[in-house]
Structure formats: C-alpha cells, structure tokens
Specification:
Length: about 210
C-alpha cells in the first residue's frame, strides 16, 4: 500500500545517504546504488551507464547480476532505449507483452530476462546517464515500483555526481594543472611506498 511505499522511499533515501556518508569512492557508490535498486524491487540485475557529452554516446558502464556473455555483447546505440530514457528524462520499459514499444532483445531473452526498466540519472537538470533494473520473475514492474525507482534514481544521481566530483578533486590535488603530470607530493608518496616495498622483499630500486 501507500504507507509501505513511503517506508520504501524513506529506506531508499537513507540507503543512498548512508552510502555517500560511508565512502566517497565512485565505484562503491555505484555498487551500492545497483545493490539497492535490485533489493528494492526484488530484481535480478542492474546496470549504470554513463553518457559522454563530448562524444555523444554511452561509453562506460558497470553491472551487477549479469553474465559475462551478456556484458561482453552489451551495446547502447543511438536512438535506442537508453538514448530515449536519457533524452526524454522519463523511464522506458522493455518486455515481450503485446503493445510494448521496446520488445526484449535476443540477448536479453537468452539471459532469461523477462522485463527491464531504464531510468535517467539526472542531477539538477544535468543528465549523467541511465540506471537499468532487470527482472526474470515477471513481465512488468508495478506502478509503485516505478515510482520508487524514479525517486531512487534522483537520489542516486546526486550521490554519483558528488562521488565523481570528489574523484576529480582528488586528481586535481595530485596533478599539475598545466601538464597533467603527477606533482611532487604524489611523487614523494609513491617513493615512500616503493621504498618500503623494496625493503620488505629485499629488492633494489633506482630512480
């Protein structure tokens, strides 16, 4: 009912907030977002794909719960389902029910996927990419699940944006802005690590 949905939405908010507070590592935030999306809807798998604004296509993605074969054959073509969700700012559903505009691909059928939803990840009107949630137990997502995932995707986009910003700031702190080379501080840190490593394994090192 409505009250359980509200509780789920609150849980979603708390989960993302907790993921963000516990670590600003981008990979950990992405893993937590996918894990939560799967758990909230009792789904099988999830994927986050990032859109590269300069090249105008989806370039990087991470997954949970999908086979190696599926991952190796994944593609995000122009005008495709992810492109539609990303451009329209609304979720897109795929299944093999009559009248569904986006029928399942042969790849999805071979993976025993019966339906999936693709939602835009948008932070302050800035599109970052898309979130996929795949299920193998039924051909649809209930309206309250879609509502929950939409709320969740908005929260997730904020967490992902912050983590990416943090990663960029960390890079800037360790690099020379003009040349893109690592700076003296980073050199000293690496030198200390290598010196300790060589001492431990009784190796020599030179500079």
């Amino acid at each position: 009912g409505k009250s359980s949905l509200k509780m789920s939405q609150l849980a979603a908010r708390n989960q993302v907030a907790a993921a963000l507070a516990s670590s600003l590592s981008l990979r950990e935030v992405l893993d937590e977002v996918m894990r939560c999306a799967i758990a909230f809807t009792h789904s099988r798998a999830s994927c986050i794909a990032f859109f590269d604004q300069t090249e105008g296509l989806f370039k990087e993605w991470v997954t949970q719960g999908l086979s190696g074969e599926f991952i190796s054959r994944m593609e995000f073509r122009c005008g495709g389902l992810a492109d539609e969700a990303f451009t329209s700012g609304d979720y897109v559903l795929s299944n093999d029910l009559p009248g569904t505009r986006h029928q399942l691909s042969q790849l999805a059928r071979e993976e025993d996927i019966r339906s999936f939803v693709c939602l835009p990840l948008t932070f302050h009107d800035q599109p970052l990419g898309v979130l996929y949630v795949y299920r193998d137990d039924r051909d649809d997502f209930h309206p309250d699940e879609i509502e929950l995932l939409t709320t969740f995707a908005n929260l997730a986009a904020g967490a992902i944006n912050n983590a990416r910003l943090h990663a960029r700031m960390t890079d800037l702190a360790s690099m020379d802005g003009l040349t893109g080379l690592y700076n003296r501080r980073t050199f000293d840190e690496r030198l200390t690590i290598e010196a300790v490593r060589c001492t431990r394994y009784q190796n020599r090192y030179s500079i």
